[in-house]
């Protein structure tokens, strides 16, 4: 098991919590077509918060649960900066968490 797993697991919970606090958590499951988008961050069919909820969080949880290799790099903050540019104050918490996630991934064990 990668030594970063416990910190990453905690971070995933914090990201989920922040999505809920900001009202960006959705109870409506996207369609199978939306979930299978090949575009980066599924920008063609999902909002960024939907991508975090329905693609990113489940994939990262699967990696942790199955003891799979972590990605070599993460650039989620850059996308968040673009998406939330007009909501700087409201998105501060999620951007901080995604920055910390990017740093955890960059720190190879």
**Proportion of strand residues:** under 5%
H-E order = HHHHH
Mean pLDDT: 95
Low-confidence stretches: none
- Please identify the structural class as seen in this structure: mainly alpha
Distance between the termini: 10 Å
CATH topology: de novo design (two linked rop proteins)
| Helicity, as a percent range | 55-70%
Describe the fold and architecture.
This protein has 109 residues and is mostly helical. The chain has one domain: de novo design (two linked rop proteins) (Up-down Bundle), CATH 1.20.1440.40. 57% of the residues lie in helices and 0% in strands. It has five helices and no strands. Helix 1 runs antiparallel to helix 3 (48-65) and helix 4 (76-83) runs antiparallel to helix 5. It is globular, with a radius of gyration of 14 Å. 20% of the residues are buried.
Short description:
The protein has 109 residues and is mainly alpha-helical. 57% of the residues lie in helices and 0% in strands. The chain is built from five helices and no strands.
Q: What keywords describe this structure?
A:
109 residues, mainly alpha, de novo design (two linked rop proteins)
Layout of helices and strands:
Blueprint: H1 5-21, H2 32-35, H3 48-65, H4 76-83, H5 92-106
């Amino acid at each position: 098991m990668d030594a970063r797993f416990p910190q990453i697991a905690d971070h995933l919970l914090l990201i989920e919590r922040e999505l809920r606090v900001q009202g960006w958590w959705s109870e409506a499951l996207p369609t199978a077509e939306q979930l299978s988008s090949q575009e980066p961050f599924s920008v063609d069919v999902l909002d960024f918060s939907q991508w975090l909820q329905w693609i990113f969080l489940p994939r990262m949880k699967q990696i942790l649960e199955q003891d799979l290799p972590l990605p070599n790099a993460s650039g989620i903050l850059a996308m968040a900066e673009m998406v939330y540019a007009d909501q700087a104050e409201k998105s501060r918490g999620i951007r901080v968490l995604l920055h910390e996630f990017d740093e955890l991934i960059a720190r190879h064990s």
